Structures are given as structure tokens and as C-alpha cells.
Ribosomal RNA small subunit methyltransferase A
Amino acid sequence: MKKKKSDPAQDPSQVRAKKHLGQHFLKDENVAKKIADTLSYQGYDKVLEIGPGMGVLTKYLLEKDTEVHVIEIDTESVAYLENNYLHLRGRIHEKDFLKYDLSQVFGDEQYAIIGNFPYNISSQIVFKVLELRDQIPEFSGMFQKEVAKRICEKEGSKTYGILSVLVQAFYEAEYLFTVPPSVFNPPPKVDSGVLKLTRKENYSLPCDEKLFFRIVKMGFNQRRKTLRNSLKNLNLPDNLREDAIFGSRPEQLSFQQFIELTQKIEPYAVSDK
């Protein structure tokens, strides 16, 4: 007699981790609870989990006094969640987080974002959070350890970069704890790290924000050069380029100094507005 094939919607062993989606399913309940506890759940009443998989983290979010939404691109995971997490009915969004207009879900409300993020798109997730920063007071989750460390790094470090500056201009970034490969199925080849971002009380910049982003990216795209050389395409006047700050390399500048640099350049630069 032919054995009946298991249904992924009922059997978790049939929800396969897909390499092309960068999936590594968290299987450690203690780690999941610890991640759920990283948010304060203050100042908002909705939380969006990215990439819930089979809901190991989701179950602990559902214990909190908040309205939980999940966004998942994997159809097998969606089917499993719909059958096993009935409290999520109507709040499971089978969409690509990077492409989906979240105003269709949250309007202009405040909400937090959390998740065990696929390594292959984790930086892109952070860039989108920065775009949505007016609505996201808190963000926490699991990254490849070196990426999480880089986001929280301070100036003067070799790993300090674009994400470090842009994130820290708007959020307080805190590296929380390291997670070994053994808590995942399949285990990744590297350690993971959990970080938390808390939006600053005053997170609007005293400069042209688009120009700020542009200057940070231009500087780090040629990080071995001084800013005098990496920003030469801005066609700034010679007397401005003689300012001492232009003799620095990008990793030497804090986010506050990048703001000061933007303020110096602003009167001379063509805005992207």
C-alpha cells in the first residue's frame, strides 16, 4: 500500500528550509522567548514578524499584549501557520517584505518589527526599516553575527560602515547576545547575533536627509580614500575642500560628524529632492 504523503500544513517536518530564501528555522524555545522579550511593547500596540517559518518565535509574541502580524513569502510556511496558529487568521501576509506596501496593513500607525531574518536580505531589511522609521519605534531580531556587530559598531573600527552610520543617526543600536549554529535547522556555518534598535526621541536630522544618505554612501564606497577624494564628484569649491574634516577617512567620522559634514556641503550641493 502506498504511503500517504504528509501535508506541510499539518506536519512541521514537511516544511522544508529553502536555501534560495536563506531559511534557517529556529528550533530553540529558550532563544525564541529571549528574542520575543527584547521588545518593550510600549508606545505601540502592533508588531510585525518577518519570516516566521513555523512560528517558533511567533508563539511567544502571541503571549504579549500586542496585535501580532506576520509576513512570509514561503507558501509551505504560510499553509502551516494558517492551520496551526488560528489566532493569526487575517494577519498572515503572504508577501515579500522588501516589496510590499505596509501602509495597506498598518496605515500610519506605529508598529515594531521583529524576526529571525534571512541572512541574504538582512541588510536590505534594515534599509527598508530606515525608510519606514517614522512608524517604527523599535526593531529587533537575529542577523549573521558580523552584520549585527557592524550595525552597532562605532567609528574607528574597520567594520564600521554605511549601515552603522545611517542606523545610528536615527536609532540607538544595541548588540544583545550571540546565538550558536546548533539552535537552527539546518544550522548555518556562522554564529548569529541578536540586536535591538530603539528610535531616538528626536530622530529628524538638522540637515538635508537625502544629501546625508548620499554623502555617507559616497564616502564608504571608497572607504580607503579621504573624503576630499571620495566626494570630489560633488564639485565642491576648493576652499571648502580644504576644511580639516575632508582629510578624514569615512570610518573616522561618527554619525554626528557626518551630519556636520552634510551641513557644510549643503549650501553647495544639488539636492536630490
User: Anything to note?
Assistant: Residues 1-6 have pLDDT under 50 and may be disordered. The beta strands are 25-26, 46-50, 67-71, 92-93, 112-116, 138-144, 171-179, 184-185, 192-199. The first strand starts at residue 25 and ends at 26. The longest helix spans residues 209-221.
